[in-house]
Amino acid sequence: MAHLDPVQSPATPPVVVTLGDALGIGPEIIVRAFLDGRTGPAGQTLVIGEPAVLRRAAAVWRQRADVPELPIAVIDSVADLPLVPPGALPVLLPSWRCPELAQAPWGTVDARCGRLAAACIRDAVALASRGEVSAIVTAPIHKEALFAAGEPYPGHTEMLAAESALHGQPADVRMMLANEELKTVLVTVHCALREAIERVTFDAVLSTLRIAHASAARWGQPTPRIAVAGLNPHAGEGGLFGREEIEVIAPAIAAARAEGIDARGPYAPDTVFMRARTGEFDVVLAMYHDQGLIPVKYLGVEQGVNVTLGLPFVRTSPDHGTAFDVAGRGVADASSLVAALAMARRLAQRSA
Ligand SMILES: NC(=O)C1=CN([C@@H]2O[C@H](COP(=O)(O)OP(=O)(O)OC[C@H]3O[C@@H](n4cnc5c(N)ncnc54)[C@H](O)[C@@H]3O)[C@@H](O)[C@H]2O)C=CC1
Ligand SMILES: NCC(=O)COP(=O)(O)O
């Protein structure tokens, strides 16, 4: 992914990676990225997580003859990062520990994983809010485990916004999925499809357009051409298949245009991504999760990066989930995590 190459200067604070679900592929892909030397400039990446869990993930890869040992260096603070020997994995201890998870069965929903993952995310936001790290890259969490731990958030996106507010920086956030060929920003994210339809309001579409427009300078497109997908088949077919395009989406586009935002549409959702992919638009605004994510993921889960727009700090993640079906087998692909790290550095550099 040429345009995602790391460009971080030595002066930029490091990037922190959160553990994710301890029984999913998160620890494995973190270890794999370090083993392969694909985490960016030396000494510029650390992990918040349970060392025992990361040691088990390292052992998974070691079972393959071609993989060397990865020493794990536990550090007390980000300031200790330069003390970590080259080739070691720097790990900051989380505010809640659970080494027992290193004995738990791979690929299972466990409330302790939810609690540990949440602690790592909270700790990372604290670091970012203090400016100790330049970006957060999150390994995937299992949303049922998060819920089982009593967390009220349906995903990182919502949790990061809430945690940012607790640090005095409230944020109106949106999810963007990006790969080499497509970028899509979602009006609604983690809710039932019925509810998503209710949440497609004039204000929601307009604020998403504003957030997408304002964020685009960070990825190098200060005046993005934003295509807005309709909600209904054929963007409503002139009202025959639904009136949201006429009554909600088109007025929001007009309001955005009056503010100088290059918003266009609404366009038929089934063809708008094809048009963006061939260069007609820079970003597609999608009305709901699967409308936006299917086209990006279909191009390859190894390429996509999830970016939270609207936060006061940079957050990226791989575009895939915990992949419980392959966790612990040493077959997980770390490419999307590597792309997320590179994207995080690039965005952090532009925000500095
Ligand atoms: N950023 C995050 O924390 C995300 C979390 N999730 C969560 O992950 C959990 C599982 O979600 P699923 O829908 O099953 O999606 P998934 O992405 O975990 O898995 C879908 C399929 O892709 C494969 N896959 C995914 N990533 C892979 C990789 N790096 N290497 C090799 N194969 C890979 C899996 O083996 C599986 O067959 C859910 O709780 C979901 O909410 C899903 C997406 C993002
Ligand atoms: N499908 C992407 C996804 O659900 C990731 O959500 P989040 O945890 O980044 O909010």
Automatic annotation (TrEMBL):
- Give binding positions for substrate: 156-157, 297, 306, 315
Q: Where does a divalent metal cation bind?
A: 190, 234, 289
What EC number(s) has UniProt assigned to this enzyme?
A: 1.1.1.262
Q: Identify which cofactors the protein needs according to its UniProt entry.
A: Zn(2+); Mg(2+); Co(2+)
Q: What does the record list as coiled-coil region(s)?
A: none
Associated pathway: Cofactor biosynthesis; pyridoxine 5'-phosphate biosynthesis; pyridoxine 5'-phosphate from D-erythrose 4-phosphate: step 4/5
What is catalysed by this protein? 4-(phosphooxy)-L-threonine + NAD(+) = 3-amino-2-oxopropyl phosphate + CO2 + NADH
Further remark:
The active site is located at the dimer interface.
Put simply, this protein is called: 4-hydroxythreonine-4-phosphate dehydrogenase
**Naturally occurring in which organism (per UniProt):** Sphaerotilus montanus
Q: Which gene encodes it?
A: pdxA
